[in-house]
Amino acid sequence: MERLASYVSGAWVSGSGKAATLVNPTTEEPIAEASTEGIDFARALSHARDVGGPRLRALSFAQRGELLLALSRVIHANRDALIDVAIQNGGNTRSDAKFDIDGASGTLAYYAELGKQLGDARFLVDGEGEKLGRSPRFFGYHVLVPRAGVAVHINAFNFPAWGLGEKLACALLAGMPVVSKPATSTALLASRIARLFVEANILPEGAFSFIAGAPGDMLDHLGGQDVLAFTGSADTGARLRAMPAVVHGSVRLNIEADSLNTAVLGPDVASGSDTYRMFLREVSRDITQKAGQKCTAIRRILVPSAIEAEIKDELVALLRDVKVGDPALEGVTVGPLATAAQLRDIRAGIQKLSAEASIVLGDGAFQRVGAQDGKGYFVPPTLLHCKDPDAARDVHQHEVFGPCATIVPYDGSSARATDLVRRGGGMLVGSVYSDDRAFVTDMIFGLSPYHGRLYFGSEKIADQTPGPGTVLPQSVHGGPGRAGGGEELGGRRGLAFYSHRAAIQGARPILEAALDLKSS
Ligand code: NAP
């Protein structure tokens, strides 16, 4: 069986000893294994810092952007082969696989263009300068310079391509070398991409390293110039926060974690209207796409009590004929969950929610198209209905990371909607479907502090958006509270995490010349 290798200190290395097994979640057959035993992580980090860092920092934004464009093209040129790997190891349908892989190449291409716009500079001047003394000559600026360490990226199992690409894009453009570690269970796709990157010989030596398997003692070797960007469960995030390197060494940490995202249907939305159809389409897409294994997927569906029965019927009609099964087959919309552990967690999670909400779809036996009897980690689209959201706790707080969402009624007022949504305790994305400006205003003020992103569906854009579940590089991604308190992407903002802001004080003409600024 193939043993996935890590790329560290400029060479491919296979770990020794006992390995973790990667399986095909449709058939449960083992397809690869990974181990990092014996890898010298301290040396790997030093190599990235000392060899990759200076080489990247010597380049301008435009030159770093050219590297990103070349990486994006490599992914795109190998798209079909990568889609096959995502089907095999991730249980993705073709459409799910494209979502992940095109997300990676698209985000790299977006940051490539940003690099071009930032041009010949190697660091950013942050805001306007200010006079610091009585004389206008004593002046101050702030600069954002690349941090002199290494950026370690740890990703979740659900987006092996996009997770790698989006973090890599920001770090490399900012001028930091990267060590990227995907989740082991679905690492085959990330491993193929890493190999393509290395073989294409695009990046300067030391700018990119790749870990296939457990992180070993790697994080113990992080220091004050390094950063750690993590995506995964809140439990693992909490463990990372408590690491001595973070607590005592000021390692900069970004956490992207769980989220109980909500879609709110406004009281103004009439049955059958464009906004109404958009709402139903986007809710059902979030339940089925990637078998619901999206951190941005809608988990709670808030609908005015007056039409809760109607919405329930509409969603059941949209979801009941969805084909679940072998994701390689045409017509199958929902593939398996990625791992046996996910299957256990999702079944237990649905059980938990069913104590507070009734299951209206997804209970009992279901057909698995093209799957072997008793094999595969399948869960059908599951819809629950919570009659009494005030008595419920898990509906608001327990993320079931699968094809599952709960309808929650509210009285149609913005105050009640805000109160219920906030019970999720901090979220990545909230969506509101309404054409009523007063309702939208109330939602912006009431919900923004609890979200990284708010998405407003309305008639005017009904057929022009990919829905709230798609993370776009122009807007920030992350969320407060339960969602981890992190922030990624957001165009230029995404570079800040990998940069150090320093105040620069001195004689204005000297600073202007050094920073290549023109006096106004
Ligand atoms: P996980 O179990 O926390 O694992 C995430 C990553 O952390 C994996 O690469 C894992 O490596 C690594 N890891 C685990 N323990 C570690 C430790 N002690 N030290 C260092 N690294 C460690 O989460 P998951 O099951 O892969 O992901 C599912 C969760 O991620 C969901 O709750 C979902 O909401 C969240 N998620 C959030 C976002 C977001 O952007 N906010 C995006 C996607 C997913 P191994 O695989 O080798 O154990």
Radius of gyration: 24 Å
Shape: globular
| CATH class designation of the largest domain | Alpha Beta
The second-level CATH architecture of the largest domain is: 3-Layer(aba) Sandwich
Which strand order does the major sheet show? Answer: 16-17-18-15-14-19-20
User: Distance between termini?
Assistant: 65 Å
DSSP summary, beta strand count: 23
Assign the CATH superfamily of the largest domain. Aldehyde Dehydrogenase, Chain A, domain 1
Classify the fold: give the CATH topology of the largest domain: Aldehyde Dehydrogenase, Chain A, domain 1
Question: Helicity range of the residues?
Answer: 25-40%
Bound molecules: NADP nicotinamide-adenine-dinucleotide phosphate
- What's the number of structural domains? 2
Strand content: 15-25%
Low-confidence stretches: none
Structural class: alpha/beta
How many helices? The count is: 15
Organism: Polyangium spumosum
GO molecular function: oxidoreductase activity, acting on the aldehyde or oxo group of donors, NAD or NADP as acceptor
Keywords: Oxidoreductase
Protein name: 3,4-dehydroadipyl-CoA semialdehyde dehydrogenase
Polypeptide structure, described:
The protein is of the alpha/beta class and 520 residues long. It folds into 2 domains: 285 residues, Aldehyde Dehydrogenase, Chain A, domain 1 (3-Layer(aba) Sandwich); 215 residues, 3-Layer(aba) Sandwich (Aldehyde Dehydrogenase, Chain A, domain 2). The chain contains 15 helices and 23 strands. A 7-stranded mixed beta sheet has the order 16-17-18-15-14-19-20, with helices on both faces. Helix 5 links the parallel strand 9 and strand 10. It is globular and about 70 Å long. The model has no long low-confidence stretch (mean pLDDT 96). The structure holds NADP nicotinamide-adenine-dinucleotide phosphate. The site of NADP nicotinamide-adenine-dinucleotide phosphate has 27 residues, from helix 7. InterPro entries: Ald_DH/histidinol_DH, Ald_DH_C, Ald_DH_N, Aldehyde_DH_dom. GO terms for molecular function: oxidoreductase activity, acting on the aldehyde or oxo group of donors, NAD or NADP as acceptor.
